[in-house]
Design goal:
heterodimer, A: about 290 residues, alpha/beta, Elongation Factor Tu (Ef-tu), domain 3, 2 domains, six-stranded antiparallel beta sheet, 9 helices, about 30% helix, globular, B: about 475 residues, Fumarate Reductase Iron-sulfur Protein, Chain B, domain 2, FAD/NAD(P)-binding domain
């Protein structure tokens, strides 16, 4: 079973997890994801591969502690095993021939945008990175990005750090100033990816967005991850997760992503006391508690 | 002595009013007395047609004769010479178009209940808690990889391991069994039967790797580089089809594969499991195959007040097993034949609120002999539903062919193979099951797995060089 090697809190909401998965680390490329199942009764859920190290045989995922499954994951620490980690899934981001790129990340999406920026930059491309956060406390990965891009622009919604405003404000300014790019890569909340696509549309700038629809298997079997792109039904797990941002039906994606929200909220409530019990047992010894 | 009784011994089953509240098996199986009585109906034809109707040619009269004598273990041995998983096929084979369709008794009355007898024999054997080791040849230390652990992969792995090969079975999910686990619900196929098969594979020394999505994590070439001498690809047909009508992207519309995977593989119906499932008041399932029946009956068991099954042809053309259609009708599923959805409409919450359909009539038979349905003009009407489950069939999983584009596939994405040997366009690579045929039956997949195992054995023996 895949063992957790490193665990860090990047800020009050986002956790960094390095997991021992040599087979996945050998194959992973930017833009791909893994499906995880934390324990026997857990659900399968996708997380983007935020980094990978073939030498160490590890992959890194970063996640926001919002849902039941990420809260369960949060209870594990270095040395603990995750029941299932499956991947690498999805198609790698196509970076072929890209000489100048702007990579835009929002919230936890920044973490996900990191490998794209890193690979492009190391391949010799000019890479501008724009990352946006709600407020200063949530800013993360600043140094990692700074070491792996040509220019880093940070924005915060409340102006407490970097530029006051949204990533789209910064992107607009760069484009207005005449910056030329081969591609814009936007990763983050759906409204952000939609807004970025609207900014780049008048410039005819090719915009790649990484979609995060509901998935059960992640291997091209359930159709839960279907999205409408350019009027056609596409499966994000086998044909994506990257799609042309100018063609995606964002409204449909937003609506479909909410289908299970009420049930998930209920499940989270119901599990809260269970989780507390498990935390107690976990701190007492081993993670056998998961097998109850 | 053959008893010319024209009616089969009925199968005991859970009452519909009880079973719609549980996932327990619907049919309960024959008692030994029932089995002997049913077996004694067999006429023991000199030229048995039933055997020709069986895709793996089980020597049916021979095993039935053993049952009639009360030699159930003997009957099991006869069956397993042709079919390694009779407990599964006895439950899921469409016997009414295979062996039982050819039974001479069927001309005047009911054919011998071959499927129910097969199931009885297998269950009897399992219940006797067999401890005898599975016979196999000594290890030959030649490695073969099997990709996919559905019926085709399981059969191929089993046969190759028996022949002495070092078999590695790769499965993408966390549980082996493929469609037997994620697709077919427990009320039709109890999951401990698949677990027994897994135990058999272990005892034969098959190495099983779960959570390995081949094509993504390893390509076929990389498998050869690792030292495998042959590969059997049985990745199934999982990619669901949709109709392409307006409203299919609405919340509340899903594929039958998604619905069934949530319920069967992820146990969404159980409150202690985390995976959610759509909660529904009124469900429409679109399609006429076994998967449509399974989805409709699951929806009922998950608490839907009404379940409608919408099919564009008539009952005669339905590809589902007759027994499943009958059980679904007993359980109160409302069938709408000659009906085709044209649009799915949102309700006030944004989720599915209704589905517009048109009436159809049957025209001329198509190239496969099925009559093509045509829309009746001005027949549009609206059904009040909050969930629509599309069970329109599936296409082969694309991951292997995406990773190894040199493998020849047809326009539907199915691997092109030699029908005798199941060999693909690439030396050493064999394929079978739904990945080759498109969505078909468990027994056909198992037959393909068997043929491939024999062909792989032949290929590897021919390739063995004498020691220098």
């Amino acid at each position: 079973m895949p063992v957790i090697v490193t665990k860090r809190n990047l800020n009050s909401q986002v956790t960094y997890l390095e997991v021992d998965c040599p087979a996945i680390a050998r194959k992973a490329r930017p833009g791909q994801f893994v499906m995880l199942r934390v324990d026997r009764k857990g659900e399968r859920f996708p997380l983007t591969i935020a980094d990978y190290d073939d030498v160490r045989g590890t992959i890194t995922v970063m996640y926001q502690r919002v849902g039941l499954s990420t809260q369960k994951l949060e209870l594990l620490g270095p040395g603990d095993s995750i029941l299932d980690v499956v991947g690498p899934l999805g198609n790698p981001t196509n970076t072929e021939g890209v000489r100048r790129a702007v990579v835009i990340g929002g919230g936890v999406g920044c973490a996900i945008a990191f490998p794209q920026a890193k690979v492009l930059y190391r391949e010799g491309a000019h890479v501008d990175v724009i990352v946006g956060f709600r407020t200063k406390e949530l800013v993360c990965l600043e140094r990692s990005f700074r070491n792996n891009c040509s220019n880093l622009y940070i924005t915060t919604d409340d102006g407490s750090y970097g530029r006051h405003g949204f990533v789209t404000d910064q992107l607009s300014d760069l484009l207005k100033a005449g910056e030329q790019y081969d591609v814009a890569i936007a990763i983050g909340p759906i409204p952000m990816m939609r807004a970025v696509s609207e900014v780049t549309r008048p410039y005819g700038l090719k915009t790649i967005v990484s979609l995060n629809p509901i998935m059960v298997d992640g291997t091209g079997m359930c159709g839960g991850c279907r999205v409408t792109v350019g009027g056609k039904t596409r499966f994000a797990c086998v044909e994506g997760p990257d799609f042309d941002g100018h063609e995606v039906d964002y409204d449909e994606l937003l609506a479909r992503n909410k289908v299970y929200q009420s049930q998930e909220r209920r499940a989270k409530e119901a599990h809260r006391c269970n989780l507390e019990r498990m935390v107690n047992q976990l701190t007492k010894g081993g993670n056998e508690a998961w097998l109850i | 002595m053959a008893d010319l009784n024209l009616e089969a011994v009925p199968m005991p089953q859970q009452e519909p009013r009880d079973r719609i509240h549980n996932f327990g098996e619907v049919t309960l199986g024959y008692t030994p007395e029932m089995a002997v009585q049913e077996a004694s109906r067999c006429l023991q034809c000199k030229n048995p047609m039933c055997v020709k109707g069986c895709p793996v040619n089980i020597r049916i009269p021979e095993f039935i004769a053993k049952v009639a004598e009360g030699d159930f273990e003997g009957a099991y041995e006869v069956i397993t010479q042709s079919n390694g998983m009779p407990a599964i096929t006895g439950r899921v084979c469409p016997q009414e178009v295979q062996c039982e369709a050819k039974c001479v008794l069927g001309r005047k009355g009911e054919p011998v209940a071959i499927g129910w007898l097969e199931r009885f024999v297998a269950d009897w054997h399992l219940a006797s808690d067999p401890t005898t080791a599975i016979p196999h040849y000594p290890a030959n230390y030649t490695h073969v990889a099997v990709i996919g652990s559905g019926p085709a992969g399981l059969t191929c792995a089993y046969d190759l391991a028996q022949l002495g090969y070092s078999v590695t079975l790769y499965e993408a999910f966390h549980t082996i069994g493929g469609v037997l686990v994620y697709g077919i619900p427990a009320f039709r196929l109890p999951k401990d039967l698949v677990a027994r098969t897994e135990a058999d594979l272990h005892s034969l020394g098959v190495q099983i790797y779960r959570n390995m999505v081949m094509g993504r994590v390893l390509t076929l070439q990389e498998l050869f580089d690792k030292g495998y001498k042959a590969i059997f690809v049985a990745t199934g047909a999982g990619l669901p089809k949709f109709m392409g009508i307006p409203g299919e992207g609405l919340p509340g519309v899903c594929s039958a594969n998604e619905y069934l995977t949530r319920v069967n593989l992820m146990h969404a119906a159980r409150p202690d499991y985390d995976t959610p499932c759509l909660t529904s008041r009124s469900v429409a399932v679109v399609g006429g195959g076994n998967v449509a029946m399974d989805a409709a009956r699951c929806a009922l068991r998950l608490g839907a007040k009404e379940v409608h099954l919408v099919y564009r042809r008539s009952r005669e053309e339905m590809p589902a097993r007759a027994e499943e259609v009958l059980h679904a009708m007993e359980e109160g599923i409302q069938f709408h034949f000659l009906t085709n959805p044209v649009e799915i409409l949102p309700g006030s919450s944004g989720r599915v609120g209704s589905m517009a359909c048109v009436r159809m009539e049957l025209g001329e038979p198509d190239e496969r002999g099925r009559r093509t349905p045509h829309e009746i003009p001005d027949s549009r009407f609206v059904m009040d539903v909050d969930t629509v489950i599309m069970a329109l069939g599936t296409s082969p999983n694309p991951l292997i062919r995406m990773a190894d584009p040199s493998l020849e596939v047809n326009e539907k994405g199915c691997f092109v193979v030699d029908e005798e040997t199941m060999r693909t366009s690439q030396e050493g690579v064999y394929a079978g099951g739904d990945a080759v045929t498109g969505a078909a039956t468990v027994i056909l997949a198992m037959g393909a797995g068997k043929r491939a195992a024999a062909a792989i054995d032949h290929y590897l023996q021919a390739n063995q060089r004498p020691p220098v």
